[in-house]
Specification:
It is a single chain. The chain is an alpha+beta fold and 164 residues long. It has one domain (9-124): Alpha-Beta Complex (Actin, Chain A, domain 4). Helices cover 45% and strands 15% of the residues. It contains eight helices and five strands. The chain has a five-stranded antiparallel sheet with strand order 1-2-3-4-5. α3 (32-50) packs across α5 (76-84). The radius of gyration is 16 Å and the shape is globular. It starts with a helix and ends in a 13-residue tail after the last helix. Residues 96-115 form the Anti-proliferative protein domain. Belongs to the BTG family. This is BTG1 protein.
Amino acid sequence: AGSGAGADMRTEISTAAAFVTRLLRAAGGVGEEQLRCFHECLQEAMREHYKHHWFPLVPSKGSGYRCIRINHKMDPLVGKAAGMIGLSHERLFQLLPSELTLWVDPFEVSYRIGEDGSICVLYESPQPGGKAAKQLESRTSCKEEWRIGRSSPSKSYNMMTVSS
């Protein structure tokens, strides 16, 4: 059930890459041409990295693998894209938040700045099958309880087991 996974994740990946690019632009000192190249390189690196780790039927599966993380260590995908435009890890640490977590999951892209920050949703689309309608109405765009929910497998996890 993993057909056409590449096409399905385009919106999520471009949303996430645009977000990191916006953070770099806001910090200043990086030219537009470099930013455009960074955005492209990051999308490419993410597409390659997530290719076999994208499960629209079980969106939480592989979430940790797809998570982009800057926390005293530079995320390898961000570091790779920055390297393509000649930005060192040191320079990236100056430009980007020192604590950034970006979750890129099917149907949802969200981020948190700082270890105790709220989680903010950048992109959200209802899952096919209509199960999402109830979840969406109870959800605010930046919420605390979600951080707790992230550490344990989500409830939809138990509904189906996908054997490959």
